[in-house]
UniProtKB/TrEMBL annotation:
Molecular function via GO: hydrolase activity, acting on ester bonds
Organism in which the protein naturally occurs: Canna indica
PANTHER family for this protein: GDSL ESTERASE/LIPASE EXL3, GDSL-LIKE LIPASE_ACYLHYDROLASE FAMILY PROTEIN, EXPRESSED
One Pfam family named in its UniProt record: Lipase_GDSL
Signal peptide segment: none
Top-level taxon: Eukaryota
Protein name, per record: GDSL esterase/lipase EXL3-like
InterPro entries: GDSL, GDSL_lipolytic_enzyme, SGNH_hydro_sf, SGNH_plant_lipase-like
Length: 295
């Protein structure tokens, strides 16, 4: 997503701007829906005003994208290189470089590294959480930002992890009979966030001419879970789809799952993803904290 006098949007790998009110999007200079770079016929206007390289369920751990057969971070950067060529062909090199330098890049990944690769599969069990988030893991974040800056990015928002242990599916898998928020997953998210903040601060100092900012979502999502009624919700431990305890993504469809009668009462749509109403709360929180960076 992006905000500038000449709107363009670039996000790696997940940006949920569809939850934003159209007036809010317009206020930031961002179109309401950002089209995916792959899978659709993009018009020149789409190229000029922004696309998404999002690949849901990818991660910084290279194993995550392989396990779930999604586009890796490395390959998303290759797609961005291809996008740059198309942009420059339309706008010219000088104008294209200006669009990229004014664009806001949103980097949001890591939840699936923790929830899926680390806790659900046996492949990383030889690591404890601190060693999993080791130098080798963190260097991937450093390299990603360095490559983006090298390709012309000057505004980069690095989104932290949510309280993963409070997501309905993780409560089911690790929260016991009462399905409490699972502490070790939340601790992993907090450790990740603390380490990434330091990486971002270091890179912001290294690239003084760029704006590189850590975006916290842990606090607002935890508050949504702990105080749902404050935000107008009735249910925060289950999703609207099916039982609300384990179904997610493809398992939430008209043939295999029912849905709740009123989705606006739920913080989560399925066992993994917030509802549109919850996303509005999250986006509002982000805008209040980081609006000076976004515009």
């Amino acid at each position: 997503m992006r905000s500038s006098p000449s709107p363009s949007a670039t996000s790696l790998p997940m940006a949920r701007i569809s939850s934003m009110d159209p007036r809010e999007a317009q206020g930031l200079g961002v179109k309401e829906l950002i089209p995916p770079y792959l899978g659709v016929d993009l018009s020149p206007e789409d190229i000029l005003t922004g696309v998404s390289f999002a690949s849901g369920a990818t991660g910084y751990d290279p194993l995550t994208s392989k396990l779930l057969n999604v586009i890796s971070m490395k390959d998303q950067l290759k797609l961005f290189t291809e996008y740059k060529e198309r942009l420059f062909a339309i706008a010219g090199a000088e104008r294209g470089a200006e669009i990229i330098s004014q664009a806001l890049f949103v980097v949001c990944a890591g939840t699936d590294d923790v929830a899926n690769t680390y806790f659900t599969t046996p492949f990383r069990k030889n690591y404890d959480i601190p060693s999993y988030f080791s130098h080798d893991y963190l260097i991937l974040h450093t390299q990603l930002i360095q490559e983006l800056v090298g390709m012309g990015a000057r505004k980069i928002g690095f989104v932290g992890l949510p309280p993963i242990g409070c997501v309905p599916s993780q409560r089911t898998l690790g929260g016991g009979i009462l399905r409490q928020c699972e502490a070790s997953r939340n601790q992993a998210a907090q450790l990740f966030n603390s380490k990434i903040q330091k990486v971002v601060q270091s890179l912001a100092a290294e690239f003084a001419g760029s704006k590189i900012v850590y975006i916290d979502i842990y606090s607002v999502i935890l508050d949504l879970v702990q105080r749902p009624s404050y935000y107008g919700f009735k249910e925060s431990a289950k999703g609207c789809c099916g039982t609300g305890e384990i179904e997610a993504t493809l398992l939430c469809n008209s043939k295999t799952a029912t849905t709740c009668s009123d989705v606006t009462e739920y913080v989560f749509w399925d066992s993994y993803h917030p509802t549109e109403k919850a996303y509005r709360v999250i986006v509002d929180n982000i805008l209040k904290k980081y609006q000076k960076f976004l515009i």
